[in-house]
């Protein structure tokens, strides 16, 4: 079970980096006038994001995968903003991110009886 959870967490992290990174490249193209090739690369990376989430373990259905991923996305977005854009998260953002990640863990990994 621990191995399955570690694989799942890794997939969430990879999907998050693909979504945020791909979206960032599209942002650079459309909002900052960078090359269209950044937009094309961003679009391809966004497709990879969609594929990565489908690789989650079978015990996680679509709704649970995307709901739990939301918490991971929040944390990764704040980290991206901090590391790439230089925007340090404030205390309310950090508390909210912690709560979102806690919620994501409950949604994805809380034991269920079937």
Throw out a few tags for this protein.
mainly alpha, 114 residues, cell membrane, 4 helices, transmembrane helix, membrane
What do you see in this structure?
This protein is mostly helical. It has one domain (1-109). The protein has helices at residues 2-32, 36-54, 62-83, 91-109. It is found in: Cell membrane.
List the helices and strands and how they pair.
Elements: H1 2-32, H2 36-54, H3 62-83, H4 91-109
GO cellular component, one term: plasma membrane
Keywords: Cell membrane, Membrane, Plasmid, Transmembrane, Transmembrane helix
Family: Belongs to the UPF0060 family.
The residue fraction in helices comes out at over 70%
Low-pLDDT sequence parts: none
Number of strands: 0
Structural class: mainly alpha
Shape: flat
Strand content: under 5%
Q: How do the helices and strands follow one another from N- to C-terminus?
A: HHHH
Amino- and carboxy-terminal Cα gap: 16 Å
Please, what is the average pLDDT? 94
Subcellular location: Cell membrane
Protein name: UPF0060 membrane protein ynfA
Main location: membrane
Keywords: Cell membrane, Membrane, Plasmid, Transmembrane, Transmembrane helix
């Amino acid at each position: 079970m621990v191995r399955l959870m570690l694989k799942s967490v890794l997939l969430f992290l990879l999907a998050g980096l693909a979504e945020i990174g791909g979206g960032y490249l599209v942002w650079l193209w459309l909002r900052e006038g960078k090359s269209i090739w950044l937009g094309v690369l961003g679009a391809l990376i966004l497709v990879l994001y969609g594929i990565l989430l489908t690789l989650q373990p079978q015990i996680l259905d679509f709704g649970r995968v995307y709901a739990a991923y939301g918490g991971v996305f929040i944390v990764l977005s704040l980290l991206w903003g901090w590391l790439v854009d230089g925007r340090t998260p404030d205390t309310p953002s950090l508390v909210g991110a912690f709560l979102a990640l806690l919620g994501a863990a409950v949604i994805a990994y809380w034991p269920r009886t079937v």
